[in-house]
Amino acid sequence: MSTESSNQLSELGARAKQASRRLARVPTAVKNSALERIADGLIANQAELLAANAADVRAAVERNVEPYFVDRLTLTAERLQAIAADVRTVASLPDPIGEQFEQQILPNGLRLHKRRVPLGVIACIYESRPNVTIDIAALALKSGNAAILRGGSDNLASNLALLRVISHALMNAGLDTDAVVLVNDTDRARIIDLLHLNDFVDLVIPRGGAALHSLCRKHSTIPVITGGMGINHIFVDDSAELNQAVEICFNAKVSKPSVCNSLGTILVHEAIAHEFLPLLSSRFGVKDVILHCDLQSYAILSAKADNCCVLVPANDLVDWDTEWLSLTAGVKVVSDVEEAIGFVHQHSLEHSDGIVSTNPDNIARFVNEVDSCGVFVNASTRFNDGGQFGLGAEVAVSTQRIHARGPLGLRELTSYKWICEGNGHVRW
Q1: Which one, of 340, 318, 336, lies nearest residue 328 by Cα?
Q2: Tell me, what's the pLDDT at 4?
Q3: Residue 131, domain member (yes or no)
Q4: pLDDT at 103 over 50
Q5: Cα dist from 11 to 3, 197, 260, whole Å
Q6: What is the residue range of 259's domain?
Q7: What's the rounded Cα separation, in Å, for the pair 95 and 112?
Q8: What is the pLDDT of residues 325-370, one digit of tens each?
Q9: Shared domain check, 202 and 290
Q10: pTM of this prediction?
Q11: Exposed end of the chain (fewer CB within 10 Å): N or C?
Q12: Residue 214 and residue 239 share a domain
């Protein structure tokens, strides 16, 4: 990297820092106006946005990338409508900035409270997801934070087009266009430089694969929140209503297999395995799901002449620790809830894990002992999402245990300061 590139990135960070200080003072109505203008711009500029995205998609297809990658990269008219709707939802949510909480009066008469404030500048590094550009911009603006976006080379044309919409909306709302900036240089070396901008950036959020997360944790001089990867499980216990369990597993796997909250492995209680697994195979067969089966589930399903899925003997050294991101799932038969929980502990990335059961004791034990950021009872893991949780959108789904876990929405992008009010109080 040249010295000029380092200087340019530092200048970008300095501009974003100044913008964040101005944005922290902006009234809610102005921020909401900017968000509504972004939503309007997504629809008004649909043709330009889809054309830019189509160029990115064509390039990806020519490189023979995996189908899940293409799916993540692709924008459609319907997806743009959904993204715009999410932006409007963020505009409609209460503004967390300035919220006062935990008020108290000390015995000496001092009045204390905490006041919610923005984090400052958030840098998000992500791959192949143009929708993330809008999600982060919307949540950062509403929570009073500036955003530095660094997408990959795969979605550069899409991101540049989306940034034009964002910048135009900010300008027309009377806001600083440096509140949302894009790192145009997609050389991977720029990531290292961005991770060293601790004078200007307050938080780094990577959204990508294990290699990106590892790179950020290793090199960043700025706090990092990681997430967005899931090896997710659903345990179907012996008390489950089987048709309900089939539909939950079907939704969790096939509704959008390329995302981090999709189902990875189905754990089936041995007492219902012979009845449940054929039902599951029949439903999954509609979408040509490939099942990587342990010995017991393979024996049950392969003995059925009407089995509807492609069956693959599971590789115990690899399959249970694979994030499939496709129409593929693991299947394992377990003896009880204790074995299911132990398996989850061993293989989960603590993203989204669930139980299908009518047994309150098993449900309580699973919920208490599985420490994923989202634990689901008789519901699809696909609900682990900022929009589904009423947050409007999300910057990421954090699987860490510091500051915030799960979908990172408006409140999760804030900190607080103590306000101490006295009446001539002094301390000796």
Answers
A1: 318
A2: 42
A3: yes
A4: yes
A5: 12, 10, 34
A6: 232-383
A7: 22
A8: 999 999 999 999 999 999 999 999 999 999 999 999 999 999 999 9
A9: no
A10: 0.87
A11: C
A12: no
